[in-house]
């Protein structure tokens, strides 16, 4: 316990944001005294935040400091440096949004193929069993090799029992109209009475063939699952979880109202993806984690990693001669909008797809370095970097494995098809359909791995270089700076 000479007026409260102390928590242990005499201050602290003591007595007093809350902000100088980088970047993103903002997706003549067709909601009102022979176009029993898939299916359609479903249109100008659908016995989707379905409409077809069942209506189970997800996020994350859901909704709006229409309008897919993903990054990170130097460092780490991903993706997509036109959906897009650069669209997908995982890694690494600094303020930037990178290595190992397994799970039917064909690994990897996903996964993983040392280094340099300004250490004339003392009365080492 140390004694201080009490000035003729009460000393001011230690400035909020500056903290000093020993141990895992740091706060100012200077007491806030009332009355003349000497006051001794010692601090008790839980967590990180601001410490304010209070003491009473005419002869002597001692104050207790209790600290809770977020980490102290960095000095004004570092805030100015970070702002000098992020403010122009944010302004550039805003200008890009204004310049590239589309007026909506350009109109086109519907092709009636895949998703590009008119649909209505409908309900199965009646299902009866009928002989397949009586309802199929040909009443004759087919002949041929029944060991093949086609021959076996033909035999089932000729001799099996089919279903004749009556479907009622529930929406659109033909609301209340009914049509029939024949369901073959080997069909993967069997219709049931009362089931909600999606009916495709083709106006140019004969009237009795204009409607057909395209899919099942899954709106209710999907909405219920989304509700359970939102509830779980809010219950566990509370206010942070709520802000994360709001940020997710804003990200979806940017994707729906800016990125997709701008690409369809003919803007460069890469430029649109960079502007759109930057906007999503700024909104999501600051909305979820607050406007602070810690979040700003995470933003800078994410930005540098995205730049690396863009450069690597552009180089290897061109080098591997990937066209981006590998399946029916991309072929339909290219047919409807020939001006769209499909390889640029592929690169845009790589950048946007990497953003979500990058946010997770950069925020985690920044928070880890900040907490290490709070636990040991005397640790230099090299020590902070070494400790932070050890945490990052564990994160890298788990996240990279997650990316590869996520692709393998999504592409399992395709990989199974290659296995059935007994194709070698080299043949499978060389096909454009698989090579495209390999490049996408590896480029994103390289950017992810690079984000750990980059973000850790940025965070270590920022917190280690932070020094309190004059306004944080200056006290009244003749009084020792209260904020510069620890809870045990020892001066903090710089």
UniProtKB/TrEMBL annotation:
Stretches with biased composition (Gly residues): 22-41, 48-62
Record key words, sorted: Membrane, Transmembrane, Transmembrane helix
Keyword Lyase: no
InterPro entries in UniProt: YibE_F
Regions crossing the membrane: 81-101, 220-237, 244-264, 270-288, 300-322, 342-358, 396-421, 441-464
Residue ranges, annotated region (Disordered): 1-73, 135-165, 468-494
UniProt keyword annotation of Heme present: no
Compositional bias per record (Polar residues), positions renumbered to this chain: 136-146
Biased composition (Low complexity): 147-158, 473-486
Pfam family, one: YibE_F
Protein's name according to its UniProt entry: YibE/F family protein
Annotated organism of origin: Streptomyces longisporus
